[in-house]
Amino acid sequence: MANTHFTFSMKLKADDYERYYRGTARNIIVMTHQGVSIQFPASAVRRFITKKGIRGDFVITMDENHKLINLQKLIS
């Protein structure tokens, strides 16, 4: 079975991400541009955090078991 790709936009203030960083929230749920709600580990976006938070368009790749394979930020 093939991998599945979804795109989504994310805007998360640095203060809001703090809950994920501290571990009080472990997963992020987003609505993709394809109209599908997906959940993935908050740790996957850690490398994209800035002083302003997380902002941008992303593409996520999931395997046939809906496990995260890759998360990339799209350059706009």
Give me a quick take on this structure.
With 76 residues, the chain is mainly beta.
Number of strands: 5
**CATH topology label:** OB fold (Dihydrolipoamide Acetyltransferase, E2P)
Strand order of the largest sheet: 1-4-5
Q: What structural category arises from helix and sheet content? A: mainly beta
* CATH class term: Mainly Beta
Termini Cα gap: 31 Å
Count of distinct structural domains: 1
The second-level CATH architecture is: Beta Barrel
Shape: globular
Residue ranges: pLDDT <50 for 5 or more in a row? Answer: none
User: What's the helix count?
Assistant: 1
Q: How much helix, percentage-wise, in residues?
A: 10-25%
Mean pLDDT: 89
From the alpha carbons, calculate the radius of gyration and give it in angstroms: 12 Å
What does this structure look like?
- With 76 residues, the chain is mainly beta.
- It has one domain (4-73): Beta Barrel (OB fold (Dihydrolipoamide Acetyltransferase, E2P)), CATH 2.40.50.
- It is 12% helix and 45% strand.
- It has one helix and five strands.
- The chain has one helix spanning 14-22; strands at 4-12, 27-31, 37-41, 54-62, 68-73.
- It has a three-stranded antiparallel β-sheet.
- Strand 2 (27-31) and strand 3 form a beta hairpin.
Write a concise keyword list for the protein shown above:
5 strands, about 80 residues, mainly beta, OB fold (Dihydrolipoamide Acetyltransferase, E2P)
Mind sketching the topology for me?
Layout: E1 4-12, H1 14-22, E2 27-31, E3 37-41, E4 54-62, E5 68-73
Antiparallel strand pairs: 1-4, 2-3, 4-5
